Amino acid sequence: MATALSVPSSFFLLVILSNFFIPHLATNDTTPLVFILGDSTADVGTNNHLNQSDIKANFPHNGIDFPHSRSTGRFSNGFNSADYLAKLFGLRRSPPPFLSLLTLEPHHFRKHLFKGVNFASAGSGLLDTTGSNLTVVALSEQITQLTTVRDNFTAMIGSNATEAMLSEALFFISIGSNDIFGYFANKSTMPKEKFISTLISTYSAHITTLYGLGARKFGIISVPPIGCCPSQRLVQKIITGKDDCFNSTNDFAQTFYSALDNLLHNITSQLPGIKYSLGNSFKMTMDVIANATLYEFTNVKAACCGHGDLKAQGPCNQTASLCPDRREYLFWDLFHPTKKASDLAAETLYSGTTDYVSPINFSQLPYDN
Ligand SMILES: *[C@@H]1O[C@H](CO)[C@@H](O)[C@H](O)[C@H]1NC(C)=O
Ligand SMILES: *[C@@H]1O[C@H](CO)[C@@H](O)[C@H](O)[C@H]1NC(C)=O
Ligand SMILES: *[C@@H]1O[C@H](CO)[C@@H](O)[C@H](O)[C@H]1NC(C)=O
Ligand SMILES: *[C@@H]1O[C@H](CO)[C@@H](O)[C@H](O)[C@H]1NC(C)=O
Ligand SMILES: *[C@@H]1O[C@H](CO)[C@@H](O)[C@H](O)[C@H]1NC(C)=O
Ligand SMILES: *[C@@H]1O[C@H](CO)[C@@H](O)[C@H](O)[C@H]1NC(C)=O
Ligand SMILES: *[C@@H]1O[C@H](CO)[C@@H](O)[C@H](O)[C@H]1NC(C)=O
Ligand SMILES: *[C@@H]1O[C@H](CO)[C@@H](O)[C@H](O)[C@H]1NC(C)=O
Ligand SMILES: *[C@@H]1O[C@H](CO)[C@@H](O)[C@H](O)[C@H]1NC(C)=O
Ligand SMILES: *[C@@H]1O[C@H](CO)[C@@H](O)[C@H](O)[C@H]1NC(C)=O
Ligand SMILES: *[C@@H]1O[C@H](CO)[C@@H](O)[C@H](O)[C@H]1NC(C)=O
């Protein structure tokens, strides 16, 4: 009787431990724990859970090239850059949205945390005011959600193990575009330098908070040339009659990159042990646009899915028209890249040269110097 009891109890303990650890280890011994924060470029369904928000993509034709043609909430015909980055690090796709995990039973919720979490919410920005009228999850609130995840790790494995685990985890952040869009939508009169420096000091505060929570390895994706997306080309076309990139927003995006590069250089001396990789999505995307045929795109101006001129007069929804070949388009809808463009961006972040990602590329983040 005594042995019969002792066997099941140690067996039970093993089961508990493996329930905690297998999800993380089973994929691949070298698979890091991944956390993703940001906006629609990285959202994998967060906003589906926001009843009050209209910023959603959980309907066709979104997801037409996703496994089983599912509309998951991604603003893409298939996977987005968060998924492709996660895949490059050995995961199946991006970890699930925090808000979808919250719908699980508490013990399932906790078990899933070991596979990583995606907090990104479409429409959000660095500033709490960006998207506040859209009821999305601002970056500061995403970080609050990460704090509850950390508390749950601590409750499960203790604070030392949590600290060790988070220090090895990868934190990907893709944000800033919506703040710049907001500046222009608001017809703000704040001088450009002042606005950019507000964004940068806010970014600095967020990174410092994440560092305080134990994050050490950051993969940061800067703002792409948002002036070249179909919606902004349409704005330019209305002004000049030509569907060129809208230079003002691009100018802000480029200045933002330089300032962010500068900030990250500085921050390494203030936050010991921090390691980062900064992706220059501005240059990456401009080079693709300038050499479209080399990257096998035939259309880098119009959306593949949408309504009207440049398919940028209405969103990608069920009544929108689709381009004939989705692999030939840079843009999926009026704001977002196609699956192919997202794959290309992730590949460049992961293994690109210092022209595109510096001081190291994302593939080097998991390793110690
Ligand atoms: C959102 O709506 C769903 C379904 O209508 C409901 O179950 C859920 O409680 C709502 N969530 C919030 C936060 O209001
Ligand atoms: C683990 O992932 C790495 C990087 O993706 C890969 O090189 C390696 O072959 C994988 N190992 C196994 C056992 O799957
Ligand atoms: C835009 O205007 C709204 C409403 O006045 C304000 O709440 C928000 O902070 C502004 N956003 C930016 C990015 O300036
Ligand atoms: C764990 O997560 C749940 C759900 O978000 C939260 O309510 C709780 O406060 C968290 N913290 C701990 C210590 O369990
Ligand atoms: C946690 O780490 C600290 C400092 O390294 C150590 O003093 C302490 O004993 C550890 N606690 C546990 C529970 O291992
Ligand atoms: C939210 O604010 C932005 C910037 O002022 C504006 O362009 C947008 O139309 C507003 N959206 C809603 C749903 O009120
Ligand atoms: C926009 O920028 C491009 C590249 O810097 C330049 O060639 C073009 O003349 C600019 N267009 C306008 C309308 O300022
Ligand atoms: C970085 O440090 C330099 C030199 O100390 C300083 O001039 C600059 O303002 C700093 N930039 C940021 C963004 O913190
Ligand atoms: C593409 O075009 C840019 C100019 O924007 C050029 O500097 C770059 O080297 C070109 N080549 C590739 C492979 O992107
Ligand atoms: C799709 O978008 C168009 C253009 O904005 C709109 O007129 C139409 O009502 C939308 N259709 C659906 C099913 O939401
Ligand atoms: C980037 O990544 C690749 C593959 O992971 C690596 O071999 C290469 O040295 C890195 N390139 C640079 C310029 O750091």
Overall mean pLDDT: 93
Strand content is: 5-15%
Please tell me how large the radius of gyration is.
Answer: 21 Å
Give the low-confidence spans.
1-26
Family: Belongs to the 'GDSL' lipolytic enzyme family.
GO biological process, one term: lipid catabolic process
Pfam families: Lipase_GDSL (PF00657)
Keywords: Hydrolase, Lipid degradation, Lipid metabolism, Signal
List keywords for this structure.
lipid degradation; two-stranded parallel sheet; six-stranded mixed β-sheet; binds 2-acetamido-2-deoxy-beta-D-glucopyranose; disordered N terminus; Rossmann fold; GDSL; EC 3.1.1.3; 12 helices; 369 residues; 44% helix; alpha/beta
Quick summary of this structure?
By secondary structure, the chain is α/β, with parallel strands linked by helices. It has helices spanning 2-27, 81-88, 98-101, 106-113, 139-157, 159-168, 177-185, 192-212, 230-240, 247-270, 281-290, 339-351; strands spanning 34-38, 117-118, 170-174, 217-221, 275-279, 299-303, 305-306, 321-322, 329-331, 357-358.
What does this structure look like?
This protein is α/β, with parallel strands linked by helices and 369 residues long. The protein has one domain (34-364): SGNH hydrolase (Rossmann fold, 3-Layer(aba) Sandwich), CATH 3.40.50. The chain is built from twelve helices and ten strands. Strands 2-1-3-4-5-10 form a six-stranded mixed beta sheet. A two-stranded parallel sheet has the order 6-9. The longest helix has 26 residues, at 2-27. Mean pLDDT is 93; it is low at 1-26. The site of one 2-acetamido-2-deoxy-beta-D-glucopyranose has 3 residues, from loops.
